[in-house]
Amino acid sequence: MKSVIHGILFSAITLLSPSFFAHTSGAESKHIISGFDAQTSITQRQLETRMDTNISTEELDTWLKHMSAKPHHAGSAASKETAEYIAQLMSSWGYDVKIEEFEVLLPTPKTRELELVAPHSYTATLREDSLPEDPSTGIREELLPPYNAFSAEGEVEAELVFINYGRPEDHEYLERHGIDLAGKIAIAKYGETWRGIKPKLAAEKGAIATIIYSDPADDGYGKGDTYPKGAFKHESGVQRGSVMDMPTYPGDVLTPGIGATRGAKRLKIEDATTITKIPVLPISYRDALPLLSAMDGAVTPPEWRGALPITYHLGPGPAKVRLKLAFNWDTITIYNVIARLEGSKYPSEWVIRGNHHDGWNHGASDPLSGQIAMLAEAKAVAALAAAGAPPARTVIYASWDAEEPGLIGSTEWAELHASELKKKAVAYINTDGSSRGFLSIGGSHTLEDFFNEISADVIDPQTGVSLKQRQRAFGKISGKDPAAKKEAEERKNIRIAPLGSGSDYTPFLQHLGIASANLAFSGHGAGGSYHTLYDTYEHFTTWRDPGLAYCATLAKVAGRATLRLANAGTLPFEFVALHDNVNMYIGELETLADTMRTQTESTNQNIADGTYGLFLDPRKKLGPPKSQDPVPYFSFAPLKNAARHLEKAAQAFSSRAPSNNRTAKQIRTFNKLLYTSERLLTMDAGLSGRTWFKHHIYAPGFFTGYGVKTLPGVRENIEQRNYAAVPGEIEKAAGILHQMANRIEQLNAL
């Protein structure tokens, strides 16, 4: 159990002697800051110390309590009130604030019915319980009932088939065992992949509807005490969420690629390709139990079984259910709060900092824990400006609306302002829901050095060591293998994770090629409230971040990122980490192809020998798997040569210090070449089959949704056995890497 393991590791780390942290000495946090010289580094750190003193947990608590007092989903009156509240705060601190409105499609539930009709009757409650221990759960004004946004509507009746997490490998298992989803209703567990992938794949296999529930093994009493006794999912809790096909494109489903302004040209609803093709309904594990216990058929493999007190069967049937869904397909107004602090030296270079403000419900954790951190940071930065230390570059704080239904507010804003953003945006820094524990950083690898410096400078509020020291100690103990543990011990930098999707960095990074990062704390704030009625002020301050110490620390981390990007004389982009990570991804591709080849050859041989049937249950009519085409040998030489070109250029750049004799114009030219370098990792034509996604190093997986695929054009064509396309994708990715290497050589020449 992840949360338990993290707790054990935390206890172990906090009891270790100071020598355990010695690898990252205190001196690491006192070196010259990248992009600054010795004197300006001192000045910058003094600013950051002053910023920290202006971050108040009492104010964080006030803002959190106020904004989480009522449910405030996109399109609700409370969501507009939240936007206006944030705008008023920002304006009072000295920002130039405007609220930008967009008109977008958002379906909300009109009819939700689910009943078991055979072999006996059960009518699902489809309702979350109010709890006397949590007064917020009794506030239901404007509360959206549990539903999946952008589900199809309709009434269907059919037998159930259990599809585990609804991943490609789960469907392969069912097909190998002769279980056909055609004309059936799939029931899937939440987890392991993004929720929208589950009905998408089920529909491709012929299912006529999908039901999704949270199994208590993953999110409930299998993890620990349930709310309110503990943090984990109450038996009636239901995870809401969008099932829009965001791996195709996020944002308003009717205006792909353009801002959804009042007069924008729109698709017809029936032509919107990202609306799910079959009805989808989320339910609680309390409602799932009668359905699953009525199923029969083959017993599931051990790894598919959850924690409900039943034997899990695959089906189909004899459990048969009737599902009816209807929606209000309304156009709503959404409200993005855009607060600007003009740069004193480089006003046409923008550092953008964002967090969304809409929630599925009260939204204390998601998104308000990140929102209050951004407010604390913004107030502190404004105080510095008011005291005579404005940022050198323009800082834009954006509070997005309608993130939950499909990253809509940020996507529409980015699409509307795309041309200007491509010219002016230096970087985008995102937060969303946060908790406590270890600092999690995902982002562009050109910012890996940058964020390692910041994590070395900020102190963890529980352990008293730097965030980087704590991350390194965790890696030494919990690394997945000896090599990972050795890397945690010896590698100068802690790797930052590549970004897939799931929050508002997506349009900036993967559509526009703006270097981006996503920041959060996790590991010790027990879950269970995600997208449920129970994501309340009471739950968050009891279980996720008591005292809000980590919300304050998140403000310090993101505040440093914003200020350093805003004030650096030379922007702190580096390329050695980019090469190191890309080189690792190329190695992963080789391993992927070799592993698939070995597995395919073994399976095909077993089928040919007739030995595969030895592992099947003779009591069931289960067929052997189908043989698969052999995996060819691919030439990764173009990628390796491009990576070598990138390595040489990056090492040369890293070894050179910028001249102190540059003119202001030369500095601007140099910095623009730096901050537009991420654009070179994109292609205007986008990824094959989903052209909205332009980045060719990082993308959300077509069959993972949120989960990242690195070198996605190559990787996904191998995974999906589309072998003929692989050589061309290798050439594309190699060309991208050569483009970046050429840019670095241009910087070296300057």
Q: Low-confidence spans: pLDDT under 50, at least 5 residues?
A: 1-29
- What share of residues are in beta strands? 15-25%
* Gyration radius, rounded: 26 Å
The H-level CATH homologous superfamily of the largest domain, spelled out, is: Zn peptidases
Instruction: Give a count of the beta strands, DSSP E runs of length 2 or more.
Output: 16
In short:
It is built from 22 helices and 16 strands. It is an alpha/beta fold and 750 residues long. Helix 2 (38-53) runs antiparallel to helix 17 (549-567).
List keywords for this structure.
Glucose Oxidase, domain 1, twelve-stranded mixed sheet, alpha/beta, globular, 3 domains, 22 helices, 38% helix, 16% strand, disordered N terminus, Aminopeptidase, two-stranded parallel ribbon, 750 residues, single chain, Transcription Elongation Factor S-II, Chain A
Structure description:
It contains 22 helices and 16 strands. By secondary structure, it is of the alpha/beta class. It has 3 domains: 2-103 and 331-564, Zn peptidases (Aminopeptidase, 3-Layer(aba) Sandwich); 105-329, Glucose Oxidase, domain 1, CATH 3.50.30; 576-749, Up-down Bundle (Transcription Elongation Factor S-II, Chain A). Strands 1, 2, 4, 5, 6, 8, 9, 10, 11, 12, 13 and 14 form a 12-stranded mixed sheet that branches. A two-stranded parallel sheet has the order 3-7. Helix 13 runs antiparallel to helix 14 and helix 21 (712-719) runs antiparallel to helix 22 (726-749). The termini are far apart.
